[in-house]
Amino acid sequence: MRFVDEFRDPEAIGRARDEIRRLADPKRHYRIMEVCGGHTHAIFRFGLKDLLPDNVELIHGPGCPVCVLPMGRIDDGLAVARQPGVIFAAFGDMMRVPGAHGSPLEHKARGLDVRIVYSPLDALKLARNNPDRHVMFFAIGFETTAPSTALTIMRARAEGITNFSVFCNHVTIIPPIKAILDSPDMRLDGFLGPGHVSTVIGCEPYEWIASREGLPIVVSGFEPLDLLQSLVMLLRQLQAGTARVENQYARVVPWEGNRAALGAMAEVFELRPFFEWRGLGFISQSALRLREEYATWDTERRFEVPGVRVTDPKAAQCGEVLKGVLKPSQCKLFGRECTPEHPVGALMVSSEGSCAAYHNYEHRKQAAREASLV
Q1: 332 or 351, greater pLDDT
Q2: Residue 194's closest CA among 34, 29, 12?
Q3: How many Å apart are CA 283 and CA 275, to the nearest integer?
Q4: Torsions phi, psi of 158, nearest 5?
């Protein structure tokens, strides 16, 4: 298949739907976790849940980097932005994420120099064009975006641009999956593996899920047929009683990963001993920091970072939703105090957040159905 339309073909989708219904044992309930936030949005956007039998349940995992970032890290970045002469640069999906005292966008309204960039190189260009200012890039993302940050830091060193630094919040995908599987209240039958992350790390890092946990995992693409085919592959494994890693997204994901990207990450980054995750607590070896050789471009070495720790609002249940314990609609604030227009938690504001996906598609669809009955 070469074109997007082929992955949205109604007849092929219908065949995949029928195969899922044939494979799903009616005496069994299947709980499949999609790790990636992009998968969550695709599932809701294309209405794929409506095609599945009732005993195939999709659980939304911690695959949104904005969502898993604790509020304290946002406050730390904004504390640096309050230093004289600092420009705070970040991707657009960070702008409305609330810290304890407001989002970066709200701080911009209060006078801080907060700017949206579309890549780390845009932030480096800001530094190049403003030699009398210091540009701090608020770096965030899983292994998907970490290589571009690494390459930008390498370019900054090569060009001798020292009025630029990175506040590194890059995290890695494997440790939170381990934390979820170690949770006593979590039962899963398999995983839809993340497509974007896997373009960088490949498929080999997931093999422990099959060998140690005995659970199948299928790395999936993002179109409707990708996701349905991946569910077919998972159900075939479950029916046969096997557990292995399969790559449905082979047209994009190489089994061994992107070695050039992995090399750039290894050059610039090292693992942090511990890092805090929203809803999951501190997880060892789960995030990246700059190596000592790149200290000149490390915000946390160049500035006094307060290390703020802030708990989420008590009524918000972001942690339970991130772990898959609750559905978004089961949160007490969902659709009432917490909406995309007025988000309380990061899961509602992020472009990959499960609460935003549920609200934008499932919740509004249900509201429209109810309105039509009035």
Answers
A1: 332
A2: 34
A3: 6
A4: -65, -35
Which of 248, 245, 295 lies closest to 270 in space, CA to CA? 295
Note the pLDDT of residue 364: 56
The fold for domain 69-171+257-302 equals Rossmann fold (3.40.50)
Please answer whether residues 53 and 24 qualify as being in contact, where contact means their C-beta atoms are separated by less than 8 angstroms.
yes
What whole-number distance in Å separates Cα of residue 68 and Cα of residue 35? 12
- The string of DSSP letters for 305-373 reads ------PPPTT--HHHHHTTSS-GGGSTTBTTTB-SSS-SSHHHHSTT-HHHHIIIIIIHHHHHHHHHH
d(CA 342, CA 230): 35
DSSP bridge partners of 134: 86
In the chain, where does the domain assigned CATH 3.40.50.11740 lie? 69-171+257-302
Query: Over the stretch 181-209, which tens digit does the pLDDT of each residue have?
Result: 988 777 899 999 999 999 999 999 999 99
Q: Which of 97, 82, 20, 95 is nearest to 51 (CA)?
A: 20
Distant-in-sequence, close-in-space partners of 281: CB < 8 Å, separation ≥ 6: 179
Query: What percentage of the chain's residues is helix, strand, coil (to nearest 5)?
Result: 45, 15, 35
- Say if CB 86 and CB 59 are below 8 A apart: no
Tell which residue, 224, 215, 231, 223, has the closest CA to residue 252. 223
Enter the pTM of the model. 0.89
**Which comes out higher in pLDDT, residue 252 or 333?**
252
Q: Looking at the predicted structure, is the pLDDT value of residue 64 above 80?
A: yes
pLDDT confidence band for 371 (50 / 70 / 90): low
164: β partners: 135
* DSSP 8-state secondary structure symbol assigned to residue 111: T
Q: Which residues, in sequence order, are bridge partners of residue 115? A: 89
Report how far residue 310's alpha carbon sits from residue 71's, in angstroms, rounded to the nearest whole number: 6
Q: Kindly give the residue spans of alpha helices, DSSP state H, lying in 97-181.
A: 104-109, 120-129, 146-159, 174-181
What proportion of the chain, given as a percentage, has pLDDT over 70? 94
Positive or negative, the CA dihedral 221, 188, 318, 142 is negative
